[in-house]
Amino acid sequence: MKDHFFSIILPVYNRAAFLDKSIGSVLMQTYPHYELIVVDDGSTDKGGEIVQSLIKQHPDKKIQYHYKENGERAAARNYGAEKAMGEVLNFFDSDDVLYPNHLSEANAFLNAHPQALWFHLGYDFKNANLDLLGKGPVFKESPNRLLISGNHLSCNGVFIRKELFLRSRFTENRNLAGLEDWELWLRLAAVYPLYFSNTITSSILQHEDRSVLNNNAERLIQRVNLLMKLVEQNVSLKTFMASDVLRFKCSCTSYLSLHLALMKNQKRPALQYLFKTLALRPAFLFERRFYAILKNLF
Predict the structure, then answer these.
(1) Do 270 and 159 fall within a single domain?
(2) What is the domain range of residue 284?
(3) pLDDT at site 129
(4) pTM assigned to the model
(5) Do residues 180 and 80 both lie within one domain?
(6) Of 194, 212, 230, which marks where a domain is finished?
(7) Which residues lie below 8 Å from residue 278, measured CB to CB, with a gap of 6+?
(8) Tens of pLDDT along 134-180?
(9) Rounded distance, CA 171 to CA 176, Å?
């Protein structure tokens, strides 16, 4: 069995309170052939000191620390990929945790599926106290087309060959921040089969400071509109989606409706995007997100 060398890329921006836990979970991996690349995206807290301290405490571990001017997470991930020595990249969020089997499962998967250019491992959700809240989706078939209806992947669970990533990269437009991962997964899914395992190897931690939960309405709308524009301009994606393009637009407008409904004083635009979604796809009336929107509206 081949031992693949992995580069785990961890972008950080003012997440000092989480770094002991997140980096600690990387260092607890049972699989030894990896490096951790921490890209500090212009933090103003003491995160850099924490990372430097951990590097000194673990001289046997391959840990890189790089500080750069703030450019948002897409730019930080791309920067880390350029520094990577591994043949396979994994992008890890600084406020989440990996289970000890994360890399051992990835290595076993690659040996079983050497043709895979990118693949995804399962994940769950926990609260800040590490109490289990739920599990991510269980895929029964290739998730390529499932991505049209939403981002069902966890960044922590995605592994991608470095050579493929460097040809693709995250889009660094700051206005897309928060949806840059879905946009990249869609571009990749349009061309390359996404392999998967439902084995859970990481956990997304839900907490009040999570960036996707702290949205500004104007920026949120701008972000989703930019995503739709980028998809519309991509010939491969238009071909890939074909007749499902309405399903994608419905996913975007319902995403807006749900997140606006979660905000204060945004009920009216949330309703507007809900009606827009129903006009695009009346069958949305029977989907779970429809009822989630209603629950938060009334």
Answers:
(1) no
(2) 215-297
(3) 84
(4) 0.94
(5) yes
(6) 212
(7) 284, 285
(8) 999 999 999 999 999 999 999 999 999 999 999 999 999 999 999 99
(9) 8
